[in-house]
Design brief:
Pfam families: HTH_1, LysR_substrate. This protein has two domains: 85 residues, Winged helix-like DNA-binding domain superfamily/Winged helix DNA-binding domain (Arc Repressor Mutant, subunit A); 210 residues, D-Maltodextrin-Binding Protein, domain 2 (3-Layer(aba) Sandwich), CATH 3.40.190.290. Helices cover 43% and strands 19% of the residues. It has twelve helices and eleven strands. Strands 3, 4, 5, 6, 9, 10 and 11 form a seven-stranded mixed β-sheet that branches. Strands 1-2 form a two-stranded antiparallel ribbon.
Length: 320
């Protein structure tokens, strides 16, 4: 009788290789990388030094690399170990974040947070955020990039890695995202104190605005257009993605702009600009912090959300 039973063949798949690796070795590798000394690493881990050395020897076989070489009284990682550490550390942090009741300790955390933020909000907010986080969590790092509309449209693609935080003038209304209000500010019209028509104005109406040529941040241009129509600021308005550049342009030309009051008053400390209320119907500009719901219970993420709130609340108090 012929036996037609199909016997699965052992394959060299990633999953089968992973099953053969003692994942506890990765936590040992992480501590050795951080301490750069076997004796200190053994003390941190509560293990004997020979046991730590044996674990690293096993990992050398797994990765086919020396991983560490002797250097003075300690050890120095190879270039391969440096690359591995970045990936392994991030992976272990993700696992730690999902474990229930695991506290987040900012003083010892080595976490990296990715943030996408509108250029309008970057300068002052970023400075305060980085400074405060550095004081509270010296080994935590922030990767802050400029937020573009194209990035928001890509969020529906689940293959694209999500950022930890998004800071924008609008909440993300897609399924799976949460939003919290960080701040609220008033839009104002700015012009040079040497402007031929507006230098002596203490207020403006819409008809006054329609006769001027504007340079605007695209997000604010959209807000004004939705509130009053594009003709309010002229269809040929210049666009500038940097508020710092924009206010400098206004201070040195006959162009006019609309910016958040906080940005205008900060610029007015060093530039000669005139600031008047913006006459559009909805002159309030809000800033939101958004994140994916899969981070809701992440203690480290909750801590970072608190830092955002603290920074923006401080800014609001300083301008009251």
């Amino acid at each position: 009788m012929i036996d037609n039973t199909i016997v699965p063949q052992e394959t060299n798949s990633v999953s089968s290789i992973l099953r053969g690796v003692d994942l506890n070795l990765l936590t040992i590798f992480e501590v050795v990388m951080q301490e750069r000394n076997m004796t200190r690493a053994a003390k941190v881990l509560g293990m004997s030094q020979p046991a730590v050395s044996n674990a690293i020897a096993r990992l050398k076989d797994v990765f086919n690399d020396d991983l560490f070489i002797r250097h003075g009284r300690g050890i120095q990682p190879t270039s391969r170990a440096e690359v591995l550490f970045s990936s392994i550390n991030n992976a272990l942090n993700l696992v730690r974040d999902e474990l229930p009741n695991v506290p987040f300790t900012p003083e010892s955390s080595t976490r990296n947070y990715s943030v996408s933020m509108r250029a309008t909000l970057q300068s002052e907010s970023t400075t305060r955020l980085v400074r405060d986080v550095s004081l509270l969590a010296p080994n935590v790092s922030l990767n802050i990039s400029m937020l573009h509309d194209q990035e928001l449209s890509f969020m529906v693609d689940k293959t694209i890695k999500k950022k930890d935080f998004y800071v924008d003038f609008s909440p993300i209304l897609m399924k799976g995202y949460r939003n919290t209000l960080l701040s609220s500010d008033e839009l104002v019209v700015i012009s040079s104190t040497a402007h031929s028509r507006l230098s002596c104005f203490s207020s403006l109406n819409l008809s006054d605005m329609m006769g001027e040529q504007f340079v605007l941040h695209p997000a604010i241009l959209d807000m004004v257009a939705k509130s009053e129509g594009e003709e309010c600021v002229g269809r040929g308005a210049h666009v500038c993605h940097s508020i710092q550049d924009l206010v400098t342009i206004v201070a040195n030309t006959q162009l006019v702009s609309i910016v958040p009051r906080r940005a205008a008053e900060l610029a007015n400390l060093t530039l000669d600009i005139n600031i008047v209320p913006c006459p559009i119907k909805d002159s309030t500009i809000k800033t939101y912090l958004s994140w994916h719901t899969d981070k809701d219970r992440d203690a480290g993420h909750v801590w970072m959300r608190d830092q955002f709130q603290h920074v923006f609340n401080k800014q609001m108090v300083m301008t009251v």
